[in-house]
Specification:
Elements (H helix, E strand, L loop, with lengths): L1 E5 L4 H12 L3 E6 L14 E4 L5 H8 L5 E4 L6 H4 L3 H21 L4 E7 L22 H20 L2 E7 L1 E3 L15 H9 L6 E4 L11 E2 L1 E3 H14 L5 E6 L5 E2 H12 L5 E4 L8 E2 L4 H7 L8 H15 L3
Parallel strand pairs: 1-2, 1-4, 2-3, 4-5, 5-6, 6-11, 7-10, 8-13, 9-14
Antiparallel strand pairs: 9-12
Helix pairs in contact: 1-7, 4-5, 6-8, 8-10
Bound molecules: nicotinamide-adenine-dinucleotide.
The site of nicotinamide-adenine-dinucleotide has 28 residues, from helix 1, strand 2, helix 4, strand 5 and strand 7.
Length: 322
């Protein structure tokens, strides 16, 4: 297949682009480099610099003929979405729907959306299954859910085959590609930055949650596993017309467990300070992975926290010149 990867200069998109190339697919990356890094785009991929709502750039990306689109391009930081919700709806919802219009006209009939656990909001029970209520508590989650709501209409009325993949906490790195967000808000890179002395300390937000050590539990899913799930989703769309599924491991780690793993892996102390809970942070977010197993034949290979953190540490050390 020839696959359009939007956001392919970002963390998950670049790793997935490399996985597609390794499987023998052709890849064209469309990225406006607003948040991404040109050097993360794999050498074998064609690259178009432009935004998903830039008609000329999308036309250029589609010009060689495209069979499928993996759509990673988005603004991703939930906190930022509560300061500028209009930007999140413009980019994550508006620009996506605009691009979908062009994809459909160009005959691209397979679409994979990077959705998110944030579409669920505060869970009523864990592990979270896909038929749990979708009640986002931030504009980021709402901006993704709005696209999810449009997709069944495009499937029914325009013949689009789609997968909406709701990732939990993406993490880890391959030897070549890792996580470099600005601002960085994800726990593992922040903890590693604290271990490396690149930030003063890590704040542990909330130590009185009803969890095994009082800190929040999150479901960490390695980026290589996410990439594998996207390749699997493209194949699943041969048989399935509409797929909505979680990508998570069905288990979770606490903030303190991540810090302890980082100390073991790096051999350094991670300066940490207890802090108040942040509003809107649920105690535990863990995915059910049963549907992904059934529909995609997928399950995560990276389940060991130290191995996950070690993969990230190796990449960051090189990135930071340590
Ligand atoms: N990282 C996570 O833990 C996580 C969890 C759930 C869902 N997701 C989703 O996965 C996707 C990828 O996340 P990531 O961590 O790789 O983010 P990232 O910021 O590293 O990558 C996003 C890429 O999209 C590009 N981009 C942004 N807006 C664009 C636009 N309008 N047109 C073209 N390019 C644009 C950026 O330059 C960047 O390269 C996002 O859709 C995000 O919402 C991520």
């Amino acid at each position: 297949m020839r696959v359009l990867v939007t956001g392919g200069a970002g963390f998950i998109g670049s790793v997935t682009a490399a996985a597609l190339l390794a499987e023998g697919h052709d890849v064209v990356v469309l990225d406006d480099l607003s948040r991404g890094h040109r050097e993360l785009v794999p050498d074998g991929a064609a690259f178009v610099e432009g935004a998903t709502d830039d008609a000329g750039a999308v036309a250029q990306a589609l010009s060689g003929g495209v069979d499928a689109c993996l759509h990673f391009a988005a603004l991703i930081e939930a906190g930022e979405s509560m300061k500028a919700p209009e930007r999140f709806f413009a980019v994550n919802t508006g620009a996506t729907l605009r691009m979908l219009e062009w994809l459909i006209v160009a005959g691209v009939d397979r679409f994979v959306l990077s959705s998110t656990a944030a579409v669920y909001g505060e869970p009523r029970s864990v592990p979270i299954t896909e038929d749990a209520p979708t009640e986002p508590t931030n504009a980021y989650g709402a901006s993704k859910l709005a696209v999810e709501r449009a997709l069944p209409w495009l499937a029914e009325l325009r013949g689009l085959r789609y997968a909406a993949l709701r990732y939990f906490n993406a993490c880890g790195a391959t030897p070549e590609r890792g996580e470099d967000h600005d601002p960085e808000t994800h726990l593992i890179p922040l903890v590693l930055a604290a271990a490396a002395g690149r930030r003063e300390r890590i704040d542990v937000f909330g130590t009185d949650y009803p969890t095994r050590d009082g800190t929040c539990v999150r479901d960490y899913i390695h980026v290589a596993d996410l990439a594998g799930a996207h390749v699997a989703a493209l194949h699943a769309l041969d048989d399935e017309r509409e797929v909505v599924c979680n990508l998570g491991s069905e288990s979770g780690f606490t903030v303190r467990e991540v810090i302890a793993a980082a100390e073991r892996v790096t051999g350094r102390t991670v300066p940490a300070a207890d802090a108040e809970r942040r509003p809107g942070d649920p105690a535990t977010l863990v995915a059910s992975r049963q549907r992904a197993a059934r529909l995609l034949g997928w399950q995560p290979a990276w389940t060991d926290l130290d191995a996950i953190v070690d993969s990230a540490w190796r990449w960051h050390r090189r990135r930071w010149g340590l």
